[in-house]
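User: Sequence recovery, please. Input:
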């Protein structure tokens, strides 16, 4: 059930109406869009890409928990700086995931850089 506050007058609204329209705040604006049921493709390429992502997240978490050479604060700061220099700034974790996936696709041997 949608919670409406005079949506046609732009006071505000949130929620869905009859699985047809969705009202929600976005970047300070009250917006509406068509209700969409997302697809979940299970093509070979999509399953492979999801595997890369799962491997990256698991690998980063394992590196953080590694007792012999863990990711430390300096590593996280370095990845954050690296991510902030990209055309589309990203968090340290997203930058590490992107690097991991890029390396796994190119060489099949991903790694993380640490101090």
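Assistant: Recovered sequence (115 residues):
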């Amino acid at each position: 059930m949608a919670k409406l506050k005079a949506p046609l007058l732009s006071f505000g609204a949130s929620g869905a109406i009859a699985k047809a329209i969705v009202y929600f705040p976005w970047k300070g604006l009250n917006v509406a869009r068509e209700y969409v049921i997302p697809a979940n493709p299970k093509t070979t390429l999509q399953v492979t890409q999801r595997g890369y992502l799962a491997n990256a997240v698991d690998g980063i978490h394992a590196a953080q928990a590694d007792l012999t050479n863990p990711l430390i604060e300096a590593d996280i700061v370095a990845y954050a700086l690296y991510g902030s220099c990209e055309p589309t700034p990203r968090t340290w974790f997203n930058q590490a995931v992107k690097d991991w996936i890029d390396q796994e696709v190119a060489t099949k041997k991903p790694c993380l850089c640490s101090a």
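The chain has two domains: 3-34, 44-107.
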